[in-house]
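Q: I'm a student working through a structural biology exercise. My instructor gave each of us a protein and asked us to get a predicted structure, then write a short paragraph describing it. Mine is Ubiquitin-like domain-containing protein. I'm not confident about reading structure output yet, so if you can add a plain explanation after the tokens, that would really help. Here is the sequence I was given:
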Amino acid sequence: MRIIIALLSGRSITIDASEDWTVDSLRQQAQKELGVGIAKLFGSDTGEALEGSLSVGDAELSDGSVLAAGVRRPQIASSRRAFAMLCTDGTVVAWGDPCSGGDCSGVSEKLQDVQHIYASWYSFAALLGNGDVVTWGDEDHGGDCSAAGTLKKIEASGRAFAAIRTDGSVTTWGDPAFGGDSDLVKEQLHGVCDVKGSWRAFAALREDGSVVAWGHPQFGADCSEVKEQLHSVVRLDASGSAFAATRNDRSVVTWGDPEFGGDSRAVSQDLIGVKQICEGSKTQGSLVD
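A: Happy to help. First, here is the predicted structure for Ubiquitin-like domain-containing protein. I'll explain a few features afterward.
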């Protein structure tokens, strides 16, 4: 079948594909022929991003289907003493203190078709188009990962990473004291749709609107005092040592270190009709009606 891939500029190509091709292989072929980095393919009718692991048939594409290509933009991430830049061709360049991830030469051959890069304090993680992860930097603080499964999102704490697999489960690595060990809540980490990290803890949002937290209790890993309120949650945000959960009635629940926004009781009457909570640089503020 013939699939048309179009850029926003109006430039397009036609690719001859079979039903057993994956969306990701279609994206990579379009990337080669168009000569630009393509992060995602979108349905022209729905505007929704197509899952890369789906076959062309399962994605319900047919002869003459038109897909929009989302061009990859440069991205820079920073650890405490180093930078890493995702280039438009899907490769990565790093510089700075090698102990903080400033040298990625040891994994440069693996850093191809990178979709996003993430930074902890002393290491980096790169998510590839096929769902694999490549890490470098301090091995004890997130720079060494053997995560199994196809990943779709990664989040960092100060010295660890947490990643959501495509099946909704979660894998973690790095310093256990910073959330790098989630074994105690492993059975609860299913149906996860989002994860956020404070400096030393993580919180995961499940599809049923509940929340699971782990890591250091003083940095937001202990949500027991507000557990009964953590239902119907639609969004999570994090500061350095606390978390905020927005519920579908647009109210807000907070927990963690009070000095970092973990206690919102003084403004609870104002936290009604919340539209958005802004994290900033691990600081918080909210926008209400």
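A: Here are two points you could use in your paragraph. The first strand starts at residue 2 and ends at 6. The chain has three domains: 2-71, 73-145, 167-289. It's a good idea to check both against the output above yourself.
Q: Great, thank you!
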